[in-house]
Every structure is written in C-alpha cells, then in structure tokens.
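Worked Example 4.2. Consider the chain below.
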Amino acid sequence: MGLPLIMKRNTFFAVLTGALLFSACSEAPKESKKETAPPPPPEPISGQSAFFKMYTAARGWAQDCEGLQMRSIQLPQVKAEPGKAGAWEATFVSTRLSRARRYTWSAVEAEGNLHKGVFALNDEGWSGPRGATRSFSFQALKIDTTAAFETALKKGKGSAEYVKKNPGKTVQFLLELTPNRFPDLTWRVIWGESASSSNYSVFVDASTGQYLETMR
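Applying the procedure from the previous section yields the following structure tokens:
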C-alpha cells in the first residue's frame, strides 16, 4: 500500500532540502577580490617646505644651527612643477659645535645618495664664514620658491623672451646670504643645470620678495 500523498510530499522536500544544504557546504568559499589603488606618483615640493623639513631635523643635531646654503635637485622620476623640485640639499652650521652638516630631502630613492624623506649626511669641521657666503636664521626665509619663480618670470629683464627661446629648460634654485652683494637672503632662480653653467638667472629677495638683479 503506498504512502499517503502528504507524506510523499514531506519526504520529497526533506530530500531536496538536504541536497541543497550538502551542495552549499561542498562549495569552496569565494574570496572577495579587493581592488587596491596604485600609489600616487611622487610629488615635488617648494624650497621653503624643504628647508623647514631639513631644519627641523638639523635642530636635533644642533639647537643653534643656522642655514648656510640650499639648492634644488631636479629628478627625472618626479614630474617638474613651477617653483618646486623632486629633491633638495641644504647645509647647516653650528657655531657652538664648530661643525657643518648637510641634509637632503627627496621625494624618492635616487642616485647621488638621495633617500626618500629627510636624510642626514656626515658632518665636518666649520670655523666660521668662508668666502662671501654667510649663515642665516630660519626667520629670514619668508618667500617661497613658487613666489620667487613668478617674480623672476614677470620682472626679470628679458625673461619672457628667454623662456620663449628656451622652452622646457631645467630651472634650479639656490638659497644664499651674500651681504657683500645683497643685504638680505636671496633666491637665485637659475635656468640651466647649475649657476656656473647658466646663461640666465634672476635674483629675488627671499625676505621681501623683491626683484633684485638679472644675470646673463
């Protein structure tokens, strides 16, 4: 004698439910795929930003440290921006220690002993000013390279004509205090690989932002 219809239905659904549960348990769990965004490209920074990053580190070396010189370093791995550079090098001096020490800031690891972030190099003896360059306090640096670059473009004698004739030429920055030439700290905006090889550069007062002189 066959089973009642209702019992057949219950048996059918029980078997079906068991099969579905077994199938779900036997399937391996699927790992969710997380898309990771690529790291942002390295960015250059302005001279004032770089100086204060290195100055903060130099204060840990010598509380009385002052700046002596800073220069920009353009890197092929870092896209250039007006008034900014992918790396910077600054020299600080300490009268109390009679020592000088160089620091670098770089957006990336690069040739020339450049390491990402601030990096301290070996210090050396320093007995005071040598040549025309003098040390300066951090308070003297009030004008950034972005502003100095704009001033050089707008007020440098023949700058518009020079830039037009030399599109894409590398621009470097040099920070120095040379009292025998200018009373204040200056930015030298240099078109070319260095001050010695450049045929066009503009001096801008790093304390007031005023245009000072054009060198050809």
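The longest strand covers residues 117-125. The chain has one domain: 45-215. Compare this with Example 4.1 before moving on.
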